[in-house]
Design brief:
By secondary structure, the chain is of the alpha+beta class. Helix content is about 55%, strand content about 20%. The protein has a five-stranded antiparallel sheet. Strand 1 and strand 2 form a beta hairpin.
Length: about 140
């Protein structure tokens, strides 16, 4: 797989990812390193795993050890999670850097609940999205 496709950048930090079971899985340690102000992301993750287990999050079922390229160029087994579980992990990170992401997740969740209660809101949102895509496509040369 192309290395450019296996890295994403969040706030200047590289986040390793891999395609597994038809979805992207992300390095938990990389996410923690990007969202905390610690250079000891592995230790932070070790402590966070205990906290998550105490909260009822089944770490052993939701985290996979997948092979990712390390900084030294070697491929190593790394704790990874899919998008849904990464979101859950981020919710347990008490860090000012994680707060904007948590606020965004809360907003998206709130909007989804509103759409479930009133399906017309979902239709309106899709119409607006469609209109904005058309506007963008007419402004962007092909």
């Amino acid at each position: 797989m192309d290395m450019a496709k296996t890295l994403v950048v969040f706030q200047g930090k590289n986040i390793r990812r891999t395609w597994f079971n038809n979805e992207w899985w992300f390095s938990v340690v990389d996410i923690i390193g990007a969202l905390t102000q610690t250079d000891r992301a592995r230790k932070y993750w070790s402590d966070l795993k205990t906290k998550l287990q105490d909260e009822g999050f089944e770490v052993s079922e939701k985290i996979g050890q997948l092979k990712l390229m390390a900084e030294d160029g070697k491929v190593r087994l790394t704790d990874c999670a899919n998008t849904k579980n990464i979101f859950r992990i981020i919710q347990s990170i008490p860090s000012p850097k994680a707060e904007p992401f948590k606020q965004w997740l809360a907003q998206v969740g709130y909007e989804r609940v509103q759409e479930i209660e009133d399906p017309e809101l979902s239709q309106k949102r899709m119409k607006e999205l469609y209109k904005s895509e058309i506007r963008c496509s007419t402004l962007t040369p092909t």
